[in-house]
Design a protein that fits this description.
heterotrimer, A alpha/beta, B alpha+beta, C alpha/beta, B: alpha+beta, Ubiquitin-like (UB roll), C: 7 helices, 33% helix, globular, disordered N terminus
Chain lengths: 777, 67, 223
């Protein structure tokens, strides 16, 4: 990933954008954090938050005209948080004081003319930056309009106390100073820069600043006047009202401009967030129950502590996290997309051989796209992690164990036991080509064969068949080369068969073909059945209700979702909609190869879905139309059937939802069975005798255990064959069991077995990747 | 060193010999390792228990793969 | 960390060192050899091994290369063990921040997998600079933190590469070579796990937040 790509990713995620209150505040006080601390009852911490941004917090927090409230998100639910009142409450009662650190003085000196809030703020900021500041005030005291407030609102004592900080910062304060054109000219000569507070100084009288037409131009963004080095700001608000916070902003802007001017830095650079702006942060306010603002019981006294905390407690604490709310994977890693993008970038950037601690994170995303759907700006974690996997693969630091098993399974689908393509038996042309998908063949072989029969019966022009893998595992593993190669082989076969219309029984295949082989006209099997009518042979389960689990791959395919519902309804079955239907489905754990890279997470996801589903629709059976959705729900104990089992029941009057889990071993033998079934249509080639396999017996428990460990029965056979042939094995004298090992490729398999009646009883099997070199002499 | 509990009862089926604790070499991801395991010195047949394979070996593999 | 001398350090565990050979450090002596190859000291060159433990490297430097090497370590236990094993070795107890030698005493200093354990690393680097003659070499290998945002926490003194390099430059060194060898760190961790040792308190463990450090080898020169 390049730096600018990283920046694009980071920019897309808005989680770190400021909340409305902060963005609307002209000086961007962290009102959210302030209110949080008040809500916790910690006025001192709350004060510190204010003091971080506000000059003279004791003054400003008492009189601030709080435009932040006008955009408070709570205001869209009921009433804005009374931020202004809370600020007042905080500084009236907190005992903390502003801590001032004297920096070493810079050599430049600035004159601040006028000591209204703008001038005072400019002085504050410039002093804190280390400049020498002289304040010229015409009246006998500093503050300008600050003195218009009542003693109750803004006590004299407070004004004095807060302004004393200027003394601590070593400001040179001169009151009762006359200011005429001559003196002004002198000041402009003497000082390195000047700031004019327009609230207290009548700038129109300063001829030196006038342009040819006798007017004074002041740049709105920077406060620059016609005269170099002289800046101005402050004065009445747009409709004549005095706005303390805007005066503060004006002073702050002036100080920044002066700093830039003196440093000869770019005046206008990076100042887009000077002053109020609209934030990109998105906060979901649905589901928040309206509550009225807490009002003090005793208005004269103000908030009691309880009342204060009550009002602060109404704060939503705006943030986005929409994607994290719907995704167990994002939640588990405790971050959010902007952070993750940076972590992925760092993970890649490490040189070959070094620690990549984010490898599992990158390989655990299911690429389901739900995050993109709920994200206000469309951040897609699947795209981010897929990109990262490709990089890891290219640079050869993708550890094998994440994906090896699934790529081997894909190789099986592309190999001689399964891969096949041909026109319909007895025909020379194909108007259609059926691509049932390797995974559906793996779980429902008989139903796939029946469905092929149905298609040949209902469609004209010849329906060819293609068995293979669309390349999804390679795609998800980031193995671009293998993916492209697989697709190209399919495409070339398709072309050879006359470029027919392709019917897919799997939405993942459908998506990959649509996106990567756009020349192919693809239609879903369900759409075809919807149009051609139900199969004639008894479909089951009429009069029941099912909850349909849309696969995540149909997120952008409402047409297929509709076809499925239409079919289900024509079967006389009622549909109960799960919360995650339509464009909101999650993955079942197959997508992105999550189930292999992070089996624990995959299990968490499925369990969560079952719990949420049960809460929403009660104990109905599930109906899936993705092979792995069916298999994964079944393995977690949920009653589920695949639509193809209802349409083409292998056994009349059976109960497909009770079928339960299947093993990876069975998935292989089922695929081979489908090919054998197809070949039988072609007479001579059909029914080729399969090499006699070693018979294996094992308990259901053992069968389940070895499947979890990704051990196939063929792997066990290879160990036993090796052991029996070479005699290399151990024997247990207590129970007569044998133990042997064998390493066909990268994994070493161990098997505990006993030969029994021409078969082999398997007691246990396990494996490891560490490679045994040998016994050291 | 006496044989660990999980080696109880096992002997080499090829030569009938008893197992002894020996140093066994392993490699993984460019690293070399040595573990003391029960093995038949004559035939070189090693005994890796389920506990070792699914426990410490799996942990070591994860560290080496940077998971 | 001030009570290092009171609490037995995991590095002193005999069981641990049985597992890993005589040194508990990623790469053992192979990384040392790699660095020495780069420095090409002449026979008889005076070298100091800071954090020498029981003297395995010192022995290696003397017997395999013929260097005039001596070592210091903060652990009296390890020094005692080293001297018991080979009384001819020049080993003494000392802290990296207060080396008991005159200035300009050595042409080379080795400090392997030690700096991140030292209380005041900048002080130690200053000492190294003081000990080395002009044009002398510092062979430094240590943990480093990959992502700067992580608090140093349980990785003790491990810092980012940038921080380490700027410390060296500050102390008067010029960096001649830097290599990442995190794979060796992982190998050590794996080896320890296989032997049933816990990684707690060791350099190859993880910090509280699960972050694993990297490991580097570096050669620097003094002016």
């Amino acid at each position: 990933m390049e730096q600018d790509t990283l920046r694009e990713w980071e920019h897309t995620c808005v989680q770190e954008e400021p909340p409305e209150c902060t963005a609307t505040c002209p000086i961007h006080v962290d009102a959210r954090l302030f209110v949080k601390e008040m809500g916790r009852g910690d006025r001192e911490a709350a004060f510190k938050v204010l003091a971080k941004t506000m000059p003279f917090p004791g003054i400003l927090a008492r009189i601030c005209d709080h435009p932040c409230e006008s955009r408070c998100k709570r205001g869209e639910v009921d009433e804005p948080i009374a931020i202004g009142t809370l600020e007042r409450n905080c500084v009236e009662q907190a005992t903390s004081k502003v801590r001032v650190q004297l920096l070493p003085r810079r050599s430049q000196s600035i004159a601040v003319l006028g000591s209204g809030l703008a001038g005072l703020t400019a002085a504050w900021d410039l002093l804190k930056k280390g400049f020498c500041v002289t304040i010229y005030e015409q009246s006998d005291r500093l503050g300008g309009s600050l003195h218009q407030y009542s003693e109750a609102t803004l006590p004299m004592e407070i004004i004095r106390e807060e302004l004393a900080i200027l003394n601590t910062l070593k400001a040179d304060i001169r009151c009762s100073e006359t200011l005429d054109a001559t003196i002004f000219a002198g000041i402009c000569q003497e000082y390195d820069a000047v700031f004019i507070d327009r609230e207290t100084i009548k700038i129109g009288e300063l001829a030196l600043l006038q342009n040819n037409a006798g007017e004074i131009d002041i740049d709105a963004a920077t406060g620059a006047t016609n005269r170099v080095g002289v800046f101005a700001g402050g004065g009445t608000g747009s409709n004549g009202t005095y706005s303390p916070i805007n005066e503060t902003l004006q002073g702050r802007k002036g100080a920044l401009s002066i700093e830039r001017y003196i440093q000869k830095a770019q005046m206008g650079a990076g100042r887009e967030s000077d002053g109020p702006f609209r934030t990109r942060l998105h906060t979901n306010i649905s589901g928040i129950a309206p509550l009225p603002r807490v009002v003090p019981a005793n208005v004269a006294v103000g908030f009691s502590d309880d009342e204060m905390q009550g009002e602060a407690g109404r704060c939503i604490q705006c943030e986005c996290l929409e994607c994290v709310k719907v995704c167990a994977y994002l939640e588990q890693y405790g971050g959010y997309p902007k952070k993750y993008a940076r972590q992925v970038f760092n993970n890649e950037g490490v040189v070959f051989g070094a620690a990549h601690t984010k490898n599992q994170f990158v390989n655990s995303c299911s690429s389901c796209g739900l995050c993109e759907t709920v994200c206000p700006t469309g951040f897609n974690m699947g795209d981010l992690t897929l990109q990262a996997r490709r990089t890891m693969h290219e640079r050869k630091f993708m550890p094998l164990s994440f994906h090896e098993f699934t790529l081997q399974d894909m190789a099986y689908s592309s190999g001689e036991h399964f891969a096949f393509s041909s026109h319909e038996a007895g025909k020379e042309k194909s108007a259609w080509l059926y691509f049932p998908s390797c995974q559906l063949c793996a779980t429902s072989p008989a139903e796939v064969l029946s469905s092929y029969g149905y298609l040949r019966e209902r469609l004209t022009g010849g329906v060819g068949i293609m068995l293979g893998c669309c390349g999804a595992p390679a795609y998800w593993a980031g193995h671009e080369e293998l993916f492209r190669g697989t697709l190209e082989a399919l495409r070339s076969e398709w072309e050879h068969l006359g470029s027919p219309r392709v019917i897919t029984a799997c939405s993942t295949c459908q998506n990959l073909f649509t996106e990567h082989l756009p020349a192919i006209d693809v239609v879903s099997l369900w759409k075809v059945i919807e149009e051609c009518g139900l199969p004639s042979d008894g479909c089951t389960a009429s009069g029941t209700t099912v909850a349909i689990t849309d696969p995540c791959s149909t997120r952008h395919d409402p047409e297929t979702q509709e076809s499925v519902r239409s079919i289900v309804q024509s079967l006389g079955i009622t549909v109960a909609e799960l919360p995650l239907h339509g464009d909101k489905p999650e993955c079942c754990g197959f997508g992105g190869l999550m189930f292999n890279a992070n089996p624990k997470l995959a299990r968490t996801v499925i369990d969560r879905r079952i719990t949420e589903g049960a809460a929403a629709v009660g104990g109905h059976d599930y109906l899936a139309y993705c092979a792995h959705c069916r298999d994964n729900f079944a393995a977690a104990g949920q009653r589920v059937s695949h639509l193809i089992e209802l349409l083409f029941p292998a056994v009349a009057g059976g109960d497909p939802a009770a079928r339960g889990w299947i093993s990876w071993t069975q998935r292989r033998s089922n695929r081979a069975r489908v090919k054998q079934g197809i070949l039988r249509e072609f007479d001579a080639k059909g029914g080729t005798a399969v090499d006699a396999e070693l018979g294996l017996t094992m308990t259901e428990e053992v069968r389940r255990l070895i499947d979890e460990r990704r051990i196939l029965e063929d792997d066990i056979r290879s160990v036993i064959e090796h052991a029996e042939r070479t005699g290399q094995r151990l024997k247990n004298n207590l129970n007569g069991q044998f133990r042997a090992c064998y390493k066909p490729e990268n994994v070493t398999f161990w098997v505990d077995y006993t030969p029994e009646n021409g078969c082999f009883t398997i007691h246990n099997a396990y494996c490891h990747r560490m490679n045994i070199v040998g016994v050291k002499k | 060193m006496s044989l660990p509990v999980e080696a109880t009862g096992w002997s080499c089926a090829a030569c009938g010999g008893e197992l002894e604790i020996v140093k066994v070499g392993f490699t993984y991801m460019k690293g070399n390792f040595e573990v003391d395991l029960p093995a038949c010195r004559e035939c070189g047949q090693v005994l890796v228990s389920e506990e070792l394979a699914t426990g410490k070996m799996a942990d070591a593999e994860r560290i080496l793969e940077d998971k | 960390m001030g009570d290092l001398s009171l609490k037995p350090s995991p590095y002193e565990s005999v069981l641990l060192r049985d597992v890993t050979g005589t040194t508990i450090r990623p790469g053992g002596l192979t990384l040392t050899d790699r660095a020495l190859e780069l420095c090409s000291f002449a026979i008889g060159t005076q070298l100091l091994d800071v954090g020498c433990g029981a003297g395995a490297s010192v022995e290696h430097l003397r017997s395999c290369y013929g260097y005039d090497a001596c070592g210091v370590d903060i652990s009296p236990t390890l020094i005692a063990e080293g001297l018991l094993r080979n009384p001819a070795l020049q080993l003494s107890v000392a802290a990296a921040e207060a080396l008991p030698f005159a200035a300009d005493s050595f042409d080379g200093i080795l400090c392997e997998c030690v700096l991140s354990l030292v209380e005041e690393p900048l002080k130690a680097l200053a000492e190294f600079e003081r000990m080395l003659r002009s044009g002398g070499s510092l062979i430094l290998s240590d943990l480093y933190v990959k992502t700067a945002t992580e608090p140093k926490g349980n990785l003790r003194g491990a810092v980012t590469r940038n921080q380490a390099e700027s410390w060296l430059t500050q102390s008067g060194f010029t960096i001649v070579m830097w290599e990442d060898h995190t794979a060796l760190l992982n190998e050590l961790a794996a080896r320890l796990i296989l032997a049933g040792c816990s990684l707690d308190g060791l350099c190859c463990g993880t910090s509280g937040s699960g972050q694993r450090p990297g490991y580097y080898l570096l050669v620097a020169r003094t002016a």
